[in-house]
Amino acid sequence: MTTATAPAGRLEPAAAEARTGGLGHVLIFAGLSVGLAAVATFGGVSPALLPFVLAFGPTLFALTLAWREGREALRRLLRTATTRPNRRAWYAMVALPFVWAFAVVGAAVALGEPTAGVFDKAFPAIVFVPVIVLLPAFAEEIAWRGYAVTRLLPSMSPLAAALLLGVPWAVMHLVLQLPGQMNAGLEFWPTIVSLIAYSVILTWAFVASGGSVLLTALVHAGFNAVAPLMAGLETDRAWIIRALLVAGIALVVIAAGGLRRPLQR
Asked: How high is the pLDDT of residue 20?
């Protein structure tokens, strides 16, 4: 796709792809997604199924809203899932979650975590967890980056889009920490910090790669897939360290100007 950049550095769609959606549609999408999280949580959805509802529900909303914009808008959204990065070098981003995971382990050990058995819980989970998280990661990225970020970029910077979308995305995930859910009992603030930081990092991956949901989903899946590498750590401490380190990565991305560039395909 060919795009032209306005003086302010914002995306201007080419004539062949007239602007569709926009802030209003994205707010509808975000509202529906947060509403779904509440309905599913308090409507009796099994805690084991709730994460999948949070992943695939927004995808259905995004596909429906794109379909209402027109068939071409829907086709463009679906194509993002197979769009390759504009430079092969961007595949190196997939290593970022592993660097983060080992940094979390290193920081925990430095703070007094015993080293004996720290990776005992990593196997065999590290083998099958990536397979389980890959499809939900693709679903989320089609919705939050492929649909929502693309429709925000004509009117705001990638950083503004990442922060705006990070709020409802974080709020949705807070339901996983309510009593009876998979993350019950953990602090709420690290989740908010983590999800907003993930939004920054994944938006950077999406924009830098030329709008590749394919790459962004691989990075997203990586952040979920490396969880077994940290499973041997004390949970509460690891939860906080994870949040602080991923926030640090997001701040480095921002400081390096990774989210000042417009989407270039």
From this structure: 60
Residues across the chain: 265
C-alpha–C-alpha distance, residues 107 and 79, integer Å:
40
Q: Which of 59, 88, 63 is nearest to 76 (CA)?
A: 63
Point out the least confidently predicted range of 14-28, 58-72, 115-129, 207-221.
14-28
Q: Judge contact between 72 and 197, C-beta under 8 A.
A: no
- Residues ≥6 apart with Cβ < 8 Å to 114: none
Domain ranges of the chain: 3-255
Q: Give dist(CA 192, CA 179) in Å, integer.
A: 18
pTM for this one? 0.90
Rounded to 5 degrees, what are φ and ψ at 4?
Answer: -120, 145
**Residue 161 and residue 202: Cα distance in Å, rounded?**
11
